[in-house]
Task: structure prediction
Amino acid sequence: MKRRLVMCMLILLLVTSGLALFPGEKVYACSCLESDAQKRLKTYAAVFTGEVVNKGNSQQSKHDGLLREYTFDVGTAWKGVNAKKMKILASDGGSDSCGIQFEKNQSYLIYAYQYEVDHKLHTNLCSRNVPIEQAGDDLKLLGAGKLVSKEDFGETTDGRSEYIQLILYGGVILLAALAIVWIWKRKKRI
Result:
């Protein structure tokens, strides 16, 4: 009996010391800095009002946890809008991990940043997106935006800047040209 008690205590000691030595990954709660609409207009890559017309599935990201793609039909734009329908990736976790969910057929004031890893527009709880009914003070501070129509832009964008797309297309053309030269030189040797 004594021996059994000593063994249980030893196992308990090993388990608790193992947990203390290897506590696992640190988790931080969402903490946002306060700013007004004019500061956010300067800081964010895209600022617009829009109605959610498509709510994609939640997917795991290598860098950002769960993300969900939303497509917005843009009504008014202040900055960074290059299509009538804009795709935004939103953190899809709970509010404790800065996640935010948008409802289909609802309109919002959106503040989105361009993420350096994938060059797409992202948003989260700290961006201070609000339903259009609650955006009165922000809309006053933002001032008059530009009403957006299909004629102003193309139909849809994924949020990548044209500069990045130009680099990607240029790279593909360069690789194709190099492959042609390599094949031509190889045939010339034969």
User: Anything to note?
Assistant: Residues 120 and 159 are 5 Å apart (CA to CA). The chain has four helices and eight strands. The chain has a mean pLDDT of 82.
